[in-house]
Amino acid sequence: MKSLDLSPQALKKLLDDSTAIVLNHFANIHEQKGFHDFPQQEVESWFQEALPQDGMRAEALFDLFVEKVLKTATGNVGPHMYAYVMAGGNQIGIVADKLAATINQNVTKWHLGPAMTEIDKRVIQWAAEMVGFGEDVGGYIGSSGSTANLDGLTVARNVYFEKHDIRNKGLFGSKPFIVYCSEETHSSVDKSVQLLGIGLDHLRKIPTNADFTIDLDALEKQIIADRENGLQPFCLVGNAGTVNTGAIDDLNSLADIAKKHQLWFHVDGAYGGLVSALDSKQALYRGLDRADSVALDFHKWLYQPFEVGCLLVKSWDDLRTSYFKKAAYLDTSLEQGNNRLDLNEHHFMLSRNAKALKVWMSIKYYGIRLIKEMIQKDIDLTDYLNERINASSDFRLIADSPLAVSCFQYVGGLSNSEDIIALNRQLIPALEKDGRVFITGTTLKGEFVLRACLINHRKTEETTDYLLDVIRDVAERQMSK
Ligand SMILES: Cc1ncc(COP(=O)(O)O)c(C=O)c1O
Fold first, then answer.
1. Which of 366, 392, 423 is the last residue of a domain?
2. CA-to-CA distance for 304 and 401, rounded, in angstroms?
């Protein structure tokens, strides 16, 4: 009878050939360009074809992959990526993803993936230990920081309003719930508030101080005003590292405010949460352990290949209260063993892959000491970048960071702020076209800046110097046009 399987020899060749591609990619990784400037229509044309009725040879398929996908890939693995929060992955993670696909567990009910479920639980415990979240912890390993924020706010809403029987009655008839966060909070919180039916009109974006942390006085005044106006303040979102500048809110004061006003306290630690494991930075995270929920992101500062994020909550019951729904074909009553954890009863997702395996294997292989060293190196390199900027005559630092993101402008010989901003705006497409490095911009208190995030263990002082050299080169060409 036919199946899709290959002969052992053909499978071995497939694996060997793909291994050769991986090895070749890493042999040249330090030269990987940041971006390849192919027109969109051209990239689209490479893949325009009718639905293939018959298969093609693996060799030709690999050639196609190498030519059209690998060689044109945005340089996220190499050291010249500075945009967004792109951590470059790690090699154990690559192998782990392959092994996870090999056994293809559906980590949703304990008996569908016994070892993988226990690995999920273990990784959640370790993550909680890293950020000092305490021993009693539940959690969910999902796909990203965005989903971890959505999960956190979903649990917040469902647990907080359980008394209103919200899972049966919905939001109808309730006074509007109010969520608080700083104006620097990640857009995934806005999206979550939209998805949860709370509505953006009920998300209060509180102004920030000069260091981009939330203004605590303005926050409390807003909570009091909302309550006086008959609204229901319910959730406070703190930042453990904003995406723009890595600002870490005063989490301990936020925990006090949350306690005083009886709010759920969620912390977005997608970017910076794991840095609390570093001795050098621990003091900045005081109060993180007092959060009700924390969003983390392992494809950021745990150097995992995409995608893997994580929500931590204080107990598995918080998740079960939020998500449990009985379904006849998922019933566990006939199964043996009463300590089995069925993850589908603790989240919306039913089928899910083994996202925790790569995290577990990476931590076991490298050890957390080495991973922490790499995080510290990223932060030290950012300090180095800032020193170079400050020592130069043609760049100016706009905002440094307790973490690894630097916001600056190329000023050249210009003195007028509008001209400087216009030039820096033009630099983004010009740098993308150039492609040697990949960097994007952002807006800080209304001002456009270049933003470099250094979160890749393959970076060095030389690659950091190269960033400024390339920007300078592209800017000078831009100005001479
Ligand atoms: C602070 C913060 N929160 C949430 C996110 C969203 O994470 P993801 O891109 O994994 O969805 C990011 C991404 O950069 C972030 O920096």
1. 366
2. 23
Phi first, then psi: what are they for 89, rounded to 5°?
65, -175
Residue 193 lies in a domain: yes
For ligand 1, atom 11, name the residue with the nearest CA: 146
**H or E element in which residue 176 lies:** none
* Cβ < 6 A, ligand 1 pocket: 84-85, 144-146, 149, 186, 188, 241-243, 268, 270-271, 297, 309
Q: Which domain holds residue 474?
A: 29-88+367-481
- CATH number for 254: 3.40.640.10
**144 CA closest ligand 1 atom index:** 10
Residue nearest to atom 4 of ligand 1 (CA): 145
Global pTM value: 0.97
Return the CA Rg of the chain.
24
Please check the confidence at residue 334 and state whether its pLDDT lies above 80.
no
User: Residues, the chain, total?
Assistant: 481
pLDDT digits (tens, 9 = 90+) for 392-423: 999 999 998 999 999 999 999 899 999 999 99
Q: What percent of the chain has pLDDT over 70?
A: 100
Distance 224 CA to ligand 1 centre (A): 30
pLDDT in tens, 132-151: 998 889 999 999 999 999 99
Element (H, E) at 265: strand 264-268
Tell me which of 81, 150, 300, 405 to substitute to probe ligand 1's pocket, judged by most ligand atoms within 8 Å of the beta carbon: 300
What's the pLDDT band for 174 if we cut at 50, 70, 90? confident
State whether 265 and 383 are in the same domain: no
Residue 356 shares a structural domain with residue 266: yes
- CB 266 within 8 Å of CB 292: yes
